[in-house]
Amino acid sequence: MASADRPQSGIAIRPLTGEEIAAGLGDLADLRIRVFAAYPYLYDGDAAYEAEYLREYAAAPDAVLVAAFDGDRVVGAATAAPMLHQKAEFRAPFEARGLDVARLFYFGESVLLPEYRGHGIGHAFFDHREAQARRCGADAACFAAVIRPGDHPARPAGYTPLDAFWTKRGYAPIAGLVTELGWKEHGEDGESVKPMQYWLRQW
Q: Cα(5)–Cα(12) distance, rounded to whole angstroms?
């Protein structure tokens, strides 16, 4: 296992690969359900969906799971894997533009419990995922962020999107590079499709 970075006292950041990923999937599923329940995702978590989604993710060659530990407790996690091994709906916007997905890394979720935010852990997640992308020969990385209208009724007062943080990391939204993903949000009877804006960084 790789040596841990410590962006704040008592917190260890470890990138997990290969068989190590499987051991962290249960914690990642719990974090996804808890963190994504909040705006802007409003995800009404489903354990069965989580199990299937994360099993597929773990099987992707060169995937990495970056975990933040407070002692033995996982308090945050972030994932990345080659875009070539993502589902067709993830790849489609890039392929439609003739972009080579074989040279692109996809950054999935980045979830961190609220009380641990603002201490450099989010930057550490990006550092480790970008390092994995470079090791695997990628020359660009991307992620998708849900698009919500500014007057969405569930938007909390004083909500600040992460756009400034992502921009500081060198990412930018690409006009028209949008996909659609479906999930059930709180208050819905079933899944509905949401637009997702891709952000991209090349190096």
A: 6
CA dihedral for 87, 57, 17, 19, sign (positive or negative): negative
Q: What is the structure's pLDDT at 4?
A: 52
Q: β-pairing, 104-112 with 140-146? A: parallel
Residue spans of the chain under pLDDT 70 = 1-9
Calculate the CA 102 to chain-centre distance.
19
27 Cβ neighbours under 8 A, 6+ residues apart: 67, 74, 77
CA–CA distance, 178 with 199 (Å, rounded to integer): 9
Which single residue is written with the structure tokens 């970056």? 66
pLDDT digits (tens, 9 = 90+) for 127-169: 999 999 999 999 999 999 999 999 999 999 999 999 999 999 9
Instruction: State pTM to two decimals.
Output: 0.91
DSSP collapsed to 3 states, the chain: CCCCECCCCCEEEEEEECHHHHHHHHHHHHHHHHHCCCCCCCECCCHHHHHHHHHHHHHCCCCEEEEEEECCEEEEEEEEEEHHHCCHHHHHHHHHCCCCHHHEEEEEEEEECHHHCCCCHHHHHHHHHHHHHHHCCCCEEEEEEECCCCCCCCCCCCCCCCHHHHHHCCCEEEEEEEEEEEECECCCCCCEEEEEEEEEEEC
